[in-house]
Amino acid sequence: MRTGWRRILCWVMGVTALFLALMAAFRMELGEDGEDPLAIADVAGVWQGSDGGRLTVRADGSADLDGVTRPGPDCGQSTDGAGRSYTGPAARAFDTYPDERPGIRFDHHGPATAKPFRIYLVVSLPKDGTKGILPQDPPGVRYTRSAGRQN
Fold it and tell me: Would you tell me how many other CB atoms lie within 10 Å of the CB of residue 84?
């Protein structure tokens, strides 16, 4: 009977050790996702979208958006305007889109209604350059940053 209790105790200790090792690995993985906050050097520049959209982000907190997908049908655009895109000035702020990585929030006013709207750029910093997505874009549209002219 003593052998059975020892076997159970060893089994419980082994399962507990395995569980703790997995939790430590999981926490370390989460720590990698919680990277340092974005800096202006990470986002300033020209972002070119694979769909033709363009974002010009400046260090002073301003930005220009050109042909960027609007986040919804009621974005302060004229109802007779073609397409679902926004072109114009915006204010930039660091923010995190819900359930995504950190990024930039662009605040702008629709030209037809002056209603305020937000467009988010979710930013990732892979080794091959800064990349981003606009959650409201169709799947597969990606933005790539170049530190080029920001006029």
Answer: 14
Contact by Cβ (8 Å): 134, 121: yes
- The rounded distance, in Å, linking the Cα atoms of 67 and 105 is 16
β-bridge mates for residue 47, sequence order = 55, 145
Given pLDDT bands bounded at 50, 70 and 90, which one contains residue 80?
very low
Number of separate helices (H) and strands (E) present in the chain? 2, 8
Q: How far is CA 5 from CA 1, 43, 146, in A?
A: 7, 60, 65
Q: What is the pTM of this model?
A: 0.64
Q: Which long-range contacts (CB under 8 A, 24 or more apart) does 97-102 make?
A: 97/122, 97/135, 100/135, 101/33, 102/35, 102/37, 102/38
